[in-house]
Design a protein that fits this description.
2 domains; globular; 9 strands; 220 residues; alpha+beta; nine-stranded mixed beta sheet
């Protein structure tokens, strides 16, 4: 059997109630071909929901942050397939990660979802690879789309988009609502965004944008 795979969905949130700690959205979308050439067919998650969903005798599917199995941020209350995709309703935990998760959704920092799965039944056709059955292992809210050492920025098309994202992150940081750990993560995200603008040769400290220096020094 293959190892766990992950697949994302943009703008997967439907609603958030920070006071009650309830978040609703979609971990997957049906019928659209993604960048891997896959199309998930409605019904692909039915067996997993029935056997391991929140209303089953053995609930095992987790709501994670960034596919990190050590960082569960919410308890899934409802999980079902509708015509759009894999719908969920979750209640955020009362721990720091759960609290910050709600704030980042409210501030527009977390905007995307993904899910971890193992494919059981797929069919390759001329137009796409159709997935008919998956073992659903977890659903994830994505904190910083693809921010890592190899691909510091994905999903951002221009310098204007980068500066707009930095402005949004800095505004969220000025609110002062997050835990120290999340403040550090936000600062690292800002740094990675500015690093993506640097030329291929090493940029000196004097050449770095003033807002970058301000963000890191003021919030670390």
């Amino acid at each position: 059997m293959q190892g766990m795979l992950t697949k994302g969905i943009s703008q997967g949130f439907k609603d958030v109630d920070v006071k009650q700690g309830i978040v609703t959205g979609y971990f997957a979308h049906f019928g659209s071909k993604d960048s891997d050439g896959d199309i998930i067919v409605k019904g692909a998650f039915a067996k997993s929901i029935r056997e391991n969903g929140p209303k089953s005798a053995r609930p095992r599917i987790k709501h994670l942050l960034d596919h990190n199995k050590k960082n569960a941020i919410a308890v899934i209350l409802d999980l079902k397939e509708d015509d759009f995709g894999l719908y969920y309703e979750s209640k955020a935990g009362r721990h720091n990660a759960g609290r910050d998760f709600l704030l980042m959704v409210e501030d527009g920092i977390i905007t995307e979802h993904s899910h971890g799965y193992i494919t059981l039944n797929e069919q390759h056709k001329s137009d796409a690879n159709y997935i008919y059955e998956n073992i659903l292992l977890e659903g994830s809210s994505l904190q910083f789309w693809g921010a890592n050492s190899n691909t510091p920025v994905t999903g951002i098309k221009s310098a204007e988009d980068i500066f707009a994202t930095v402005a949004m992150l800095e505004k969220a940081m000025r609110n002062g609502k997050y835990t120290d750990e999340t403040f550090i993560q936000l600062s690292e995200r800002i740094k990675s965004l500015y690093d993506s603008l640097k030329p291929s040769d090493d940029t000196s400290e004097k050449e770095k944008p003033a807002v970058y220096t301000k963000a890191v020094l003021n919030f670390l």
